[in-house]
Amino acid sequence: MFTPDPIPRPSRPPASSTPLGDYLTRQPLPGVDGGYAVLPRSLAEAMPLPWQQQMSNLLAEFHQAFGHLQWPVYRVVPSRYERLVDLDDDQLAEVGCTVEVGDNGDLEYRMRDGRRIDNPETHQVLVSCLDPIPRQDPGGQQPMPAAPPPPAW
User: Fold this and answer.
1) Confidence class of residue 153 from pLDDT cuts 50, 70 and 90?
2) Could you report the per-residue pLDDT of 32-80, keeping only the tens digit for each?
3) Residue spans with biased composition (Pro residues) (predicted)?
4) 91 CB contacts (<8 Å, ≥6 apart)?
């Protein structure tokens, strides 16, 4: 009745109990950092219809499960990493840094609290930038580029 052969075991690792966390931390991904995963709305609305239907169902379940929590209002700002020495005065102010000429004539970069930043040439900070992701019109299509002006004869 019973075979003496051992029961075959799967050759893959066991399923994770945290698959989403594993996926989000396995490698650097666009729109993902240690605390957030951001989906640009224009890209989500441009997905194929079956994807949008699945996404809306998942989000509905998510909000049903967690809608009772005190949610803050999130402000998402497109940003990129830049070297501190490449920033202009407005960008330095945005990240809370100042630059001044030190006693030896070199530029000294300081945090808002006065701490000196060592190696500003390699120190990177996150600064806002123009959003590189194209916006979609309400119908889900990219807006047509503006027609060039007629030639002036």
Assistant:
1) very low
2) 988 899 999 999 999 999 999 999 999 999 999 999 999 999 889 999 9
3) 1-13
4) 82, 127
Token pair listed for 7: 């029961």
Which tokens in the block code for residue 118? 């060592």
The rounded mean pLDDT for the chain is 85
Whole-number pLDDT of residue 62 = 95
Which residues partner with 82 through β-bridges?
Answer: 125
Enter the tokens of residue 59: 């989000």
DSSP-derived secondary structure for the chain:
---SSPPP--SSPPPPS-HHHHHHHHS--TTB-SS-B---HHHHHTS-HHHHHHHHHHHHHHHHHHTTS-PPPP----EEEEEGGG--HHHHHHHTEEEEE-TTSSEEEEETTS-B-S-TTT-EEEEE----SPP--TTSSPPPPPPPPPP--
| Bridge partner residues of 109 (DSSP) | 99
CA max distance for the chain: 96
Round to whole Å and give the CA distance between 143 and 136: 6
- Can you read off the two tokens belonging to residue 117? 């930043």
pLDDT tens for residues 119-142? 999 999 999 999 888 776 655 555
CA dihedral 112, 86, 94, 100 (to 10 degrees): 30
